[in-house]
Amino acid sequence: MNPLIEVIDLTYSYQAGSDDEFRALKGVFLQVWPGEMLAITGQNGSGKSTLARHFNGLLTPQSGSVLVEGLSIADKKNTAAIRKLVGMVFQNPDNQLVSSIVEEDIAFGPENLGLPPAEIRKRVDWALDTLNLQHLRKVSPSGLSEGQKQLVAIAGVLAMKPKCIILDEPTAHLDPRGKREVLENIMRLNREEGITIILLTHFMNEVVHCDQMVVMEQGEIKLRGTPYAVFRQKEIILELGLDLPIAAQLATGLRQKGFKIPEDIIHTEELVDCLCQLK
Amino acid sequence: MELTKNITLGVYLPGETSIHRLDPRTKIIAAAILITLLLFIKSYQPYGLFMLFTIAVIIASGIPISYALCGLKPMLPVLVLMWFFQLFLYSAPEAEVIVSWWIFSATDAGLHMGNLITLRVFFLFTIITILTLTTSIVSLTDGLESLLKPLRMIGIPSQELVMTMIIALRFVLILAEELDKIIKAQMARGVAFDRGNFIQKTRNLFPVFLPLFINAFKRAEELIVAMEARSYTGGKGRTKMKTLHMGRVDRSAGVVIMLFTGLIVYIILSVNPQI
Ligand SMILES: Nc1ncnc2c1ncn2[C@@H]1O[C@H](COP(=O)(O)OP(=O)(O)OP(=O)(O)O)[C@@H](O)[C@H]1O
Ligand SMILES: [Mg+2]
Prior knowledge:
heterodimer, A: Rossmann fold
């Protein structure tokens, strides 16, 4: 199997060449495999967004290379093909919605691909169905909740039928219910539609639902592995300025109080099961 | 002070009325005809008819009249100012002076001119508001693009022009939202925007303008990046989900507009035969 996205020794500096040059990426290696759900996490300014913007050609590598299905992102001729393969959803839904009707907004991407009207309609329908948004198709996004707006933004990317969707802190603006809705839908797109998901997030309870995770610090990847493997390295996680998931924190606390709780607990359900068996 | 509530320009109210269902080209052309008519109306009788027609259209489009008018609120000072300007500065030979104060004097001709110009701007604004309230951004731009197509033959990039318009329209809304946020933040810090006279109010607004524009530009930039990420490359090779189509509603609307135009022209000519 070939990786969907392959990053080889990528570096990137903002204001390159000037006095206040800032090295945002310092030699990143990463492989993203088809069908996986990958979390990229790390403190503010660690370079997550800068890295992710190389995956669909919004930024081009200053050195090193990024390949999407073997196509080099540095070659401008590949940009259109790569944007079709890799969609991107941003943090603030208000800044990414184009039209004043939901279905027209979702059609924007497929329209840019130059598809025939009937095909566009089919895809809009499919995207609305997949995210359970049919009842909102004719309304104006400005009247929706932030969570619903974000789902519309995701539908707009989905309608382009990408193999991979990058989501840059998609839940940062949302209330708990919106967060849950968006996360559940992202997980469903991954499990049921087989879409590769790259989720940039600060929330560890979102990270635990991913297959793989990457922790960045100061433009470098510090850790990579399954959430179980990564969260086992508690000290390093804390040192990198991150938290453990709530369940892991509780498990650690309980263990210190002498309860017999096994290692490797990151999901709330696991902790609950474990506590029930203690009796 | 909910500013975004007072902005109706660029806002779209979804609906299923026949006005909503009209082809955007019909609506744009109709609006253009009405605006042209406005330029020729110089007496009050045709304005009366115009008012009735506008109200009828608003009712037919299912927009609450109060909502259609609230967009006018931010414009009010400008309208009043214009009225005063005309009142005191317009002069005509043989005009009768009604009030005079210091070096200013208001004539009946000035009053008439002030009224006409204010009415003209009022109706201009109302027509454009009805157009944007009943037409989504995408169909508005699709309509414009189709109407501007002939321009492409002489090398004017109508598609890019129209997309720029989308971004500009969204920008107005973003700007209003940002202003609203900043004013709320400043009020929380104790700056009183709602008190004081006009000059004090304006001075209170001053420190918010810089952050306002910085935020608005940042957000507009994000919008453009998001469009780019969705494969937008400037309109070339773009297709449309909804193909424009003129139908029976459009033909009826055409007839209504023609009758109305005829009626207005008839009234203008019978009131002011010299034109
Ligand atoms: N346009 C820019 N010009 C200059 N510096 C920038 C620019 N964009 C980002 N940076 C800097 O590059 C670094 C990495 O930014 P990036 O946005 O990739 O971080 P991030 O991990 O996504 O952070 P956050 O969690 O805040 O989104 C930050 O220190 C930031 O200040
Ligand atoms: Mg970021």
